[in-house]
Write a structure and sequence with these properties.
about 110 residues, mainly alpha, two-stranded antiparallel sheet, elongated
């Protein structure tokens, strides 16, 4: 039978916010041009597959600041979650399983 873990509410909240920040950052990066700096488009068919990119106008200062803000918050949350005091209470051999369960804790109702 699989072990269950009583994750502290602040750890669950930190993990949930980490999921949200990563999703927001991913969506933002998909909307932005492929290059931070303005660059001409190119086409290269000399490799094992053809690669093409349209010209990129680059990112605005606001877009760069938003990406940096989200990356910084993602880093803060990753450190908070991975260094939380809860992990010292989990047996070393169980930590990977517990970490994976925390990553999916938002999918199940609390207490399950």
């Amino acid at each position: 039978m699989a072990k269950t873990y009583e994750f502290p509410s602040d750890l669950r909240a930190g993990q949930e916010e980490l999921h949200q920040v990563r999703a927001e950052l991913s969506a933002l990066l998909k909307r932005l041009p492929w290059s931070v700096e303005p660059l001409d488009g190119f086409s290269d068919d000399n490799g094992w597959r053809k690669v093409e990119r349209p010209a990129s106008p680059g990112w605005t200062a606001d877009e760069q600041a938003e990406v940096e803000k989200l990356r910084q918050r993602e880093h803060e949350l990753a450190v908070f979650v991975s260094c939380h005091r809860f992990w010292s209470e989990v047996a070393t051999e169980d930590r990977v399983e517990a970490r994976m369960r925390l990553k999916h804790a938002h999918e199940a109702p609390p207490g399950e």
